[in-house]
What we know:
elongated, 162 residues, two-stranded antiparallel sheet, three-stranded antiparallel β-sheet, alpha+beta, 4 helices, 20% strand
Amino acid sequence: MTDVKALEPCPFCRGQAEWASRKPYLVHCANPDCLGHHYEQDEQGGYNHSFYTEAEAIAAWNARATPSPKAGPGEVERIAALRSRIAALRSRVVGADAMPSDLLTEFGKHVGWELSYAGWDDEAEWQVHQVNGGRNDREWTLIGTGQTLAAAIRAALSETRP
C-alpha cells in the first residue's frame, strides 16, 4: 500500500491529509474545523468522493484546487460561526418537533397537498396548500402553517377534519 505521505496537504487549510476510509478509499483533512474534513453520503449510501483503489483516491486528493495560504486571522472562527448559523437554521427547518411516521402516512393520503417553506429567519414558516385545477388553471389554497414541518401538517389535518 502507498504511504500516507504521498498525500499532499489540504488545499483549504494546508493541514495533514488522512484516510477517512480504506474501503471505499476516502481521504479527508485531519483538521475537523476545515472544509476539507467533511464529506457527505449520496442518495445510494456511497460517499461522494470515494474510490475503488488507493491510487485513485491519492490522485484525486492531490489534484484538488491549488492550496490556499494558511488560514488568516479569524477565518477558523468565521467558519465556526457560519457552521453554528447553519445548524440554527437547520433546526428551524426540521425543528425539535420530530416527524412521527403516522403523521407522514396521514399526509400521504392527501394527494392534492403540497408543502413549502416560506420566508427568512424568524418570519419563516412551513405551509401546506391544497392544490386544485389543471395544468393551466391551478389554484393553491393555504390550509395549514407552522414553525416546524410537523406543526404545519397537524394544522392542515385539523382544518380538513370534520
